[in-house]
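re the bet — no i am not wrong, look at it urself. input seq straight from the record:
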Amino acid sequence: MIPQNVAPILVMNTNTRRETGRKAQIANIQAAKAIAEIITTTLGPRSMLKMLMDPMGGIVMTNDGNAILREVDCNHPAAKSMIELARAQDEEVGDGTTSVIILAGEMMQMARPFIEREIHPTVIVNSYYKALEDCMTLIKECAVDIDINSDEDIKKALTSCVGTKFAARWGELVINLALHACRTIMKGVTNVNKLNLEIKRYAKVEKIPGGMMEECQVLDGVMLNKDVTHAGMRRMIKNPRVLLLDCTLEYKKAESQTSMNMSKESDMGDALQQEINEIASLCADIMKHKPDVVITEKGVSDLAQHFLMKENISVIRRVRKTDNNRIARVSGATIVTRPEEICEDDIGKDCGLFRISKIADEYFTYFLECKNPSACTILLRGGSKDSLNEMERNLQDALGVCRN
C-alpha cells in the first residue's frame, strides 16, 4: 500500500500510451495494412516508382519495397515489425520484399472479422500455423527443380525477379550481369554458407554517370578510381607483374618524441642522407623482384616515386583494403606487409592487361584479361545518378536470387 500523502512513483515515460485487448489488436491490424498500402502500387509488371526525399534532402526513386520502407519513419510497434520483416527478407533472400509485406498485410486483414466476432487470438494464430503446414505441402508439389549448371534454367528464375522492376526495359542486361558475376565469384568460394558475404565483398559495383545503359558490363578483373602517382609512369602494361603492399613507402618518424642536437653544419645533411638511404633500401627490396606495378594501401613519398620510376615501375597509392583484396583475387598476388619479406610467390602474374584510361574527368585503373578471376567489377553506365542507383538496387536483388 502507498501511503496517502506520498506521490506515486512514475516508472514509464509520461507520453506512453497503453492499449490492451480488442482495441490493441484492431490497431495492430490497421498499422500492418497501412504499411502494406504504401507499397502496393510498386508490385507487378505495371508497377510505379516511388519518389522519396531522405532526411539529407536527397531524392530516392525506387520500387524496391525494402528501400522505400527504410525511409519511412513510424512509431507504431506493429508497423515497425513489418518494416523489420522487409529488411529480413532483403538480407536472407534478396528479392520479394514488396510481396512479403503485401502478403503479411492481407493476412492481418483476414483476421479482422474473427477478432470482431470475439474469437480468441490464440485460436486464430493456431489456424495460421495449420495454414502454414498446408502451404509447405503445396509448395513442395508446385516446386520446379532448377539445374544450377544450366544458364537457361537460372535465367528463368532471374527473369521473374527482374521482370517487374525498372531494369526490365533493358531486356536480359541485368540478368546476364548477375549471372556472370555470380559464376565468377563461385570459382573462389570455399565455404558455400558464406556466399552472400563473398558476393558483397568481391563483386564491386562501379557506377559512372554518362554513357548508355547498354554499356553496362562485368569486367573479368578489377577497376579502381585511381591514377598512377607520377605522370611519367606507364599507363598500359601487357602481362604485368603485380606487387601488393600494406605498408608505407615513406620515411617513418620515431614513435616516441625524439629530438636531434646538431653540433656541426654537416649534421643536417647527414640526417637527410640517412632518410634517403632508408627509402632507397625499401625500394631496393621491391626492385629486386622486378615488378611492373606496385600498389600500396598507404602513402608513397616523392623520393620513393623517383627510385621506382627510374626502374620503369608504375605506382598506385592509397588503395582501399577491399580493393586490394579484390586485386589479389584476380592477379594471384599476395598482400605483403614488409618489403624485406617479399618473395617470388607474392608477385601476381595472372593478370593479362593493366591499363589506365580516362572517363569524363577521372582516371580509372583496370586489371583485365585475368586467367581465372574469382572477383569482378560490375560497371554500370547510365544517364543520371538516380537511374544508376535504381539499376544497382535491381542488380543486388538479381544477385541475391542468383546466389540462392
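see?? Residues 121-142 form the longest helix (22 residues). told u. also The chain has three domains: 21-139, 151-202+385-403, 222-250+281-372. so pay up
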